[in-house]
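User: Structure please.
Assistant: Input sequence and predicted structure:
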Amino acid sequence: MSERGNVAATEPAEIPAYANPAERRRDLRISQLFRTVHFTFGDAPFEFRLRTLSLRGASGIAAEPLEKGQTGTVLFEGGRSVPASVRWTREQLAGLYFSLPLPLDLLHVGRHDQKGGTTPRARRYSVARPATLICAGDKRLAVEIRNISEGGMLIFGRPILLPGQVVEIVCGAAPLLRCQVRWVRNGFAGLQFAAPISLAEFDDQSRA
């Protein structure tokens, strides 16, 4: 075999180009339900309700219309900011690209690690939503939802409740939630839903 043939036989195969840069996505996207930051360009910041977040970008619902190519700054908790540009828009949704990697502590704010045990604990999301608690005799009490998961929530408001009691929760325009009291302590109460809920739907409806 010729020398030229030997060289050709050892050349690596050409790596195919990706038709879409999204196909090369490597960063892990983390769900960010119930977390709101602010996006600013021009004069004033406005709310940007996060849906996903990664080291290099975010997706979410903007309170004001955005256009592809706009540049600005995302303001996170504590006044920390990250330069960003609008990569795509689709109706109310928008995708942002960060020009600098997001610090890890901002990426993981609000996440709750699973604890040990045979059954993993459902992820809780920190919130602060006013709600109405309906208990025995159709008595209505104002409470605040402090965290929520697909299977239950933590409320605060110093209602007089007992473990095992059945109650109902009304929050914004979300459907009434039937719950059972699991525990009560120092004004807080843990509630378990009669059936799992969609957190995305509850997030949208409870704001109305």
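The mean pLDDT is 79.
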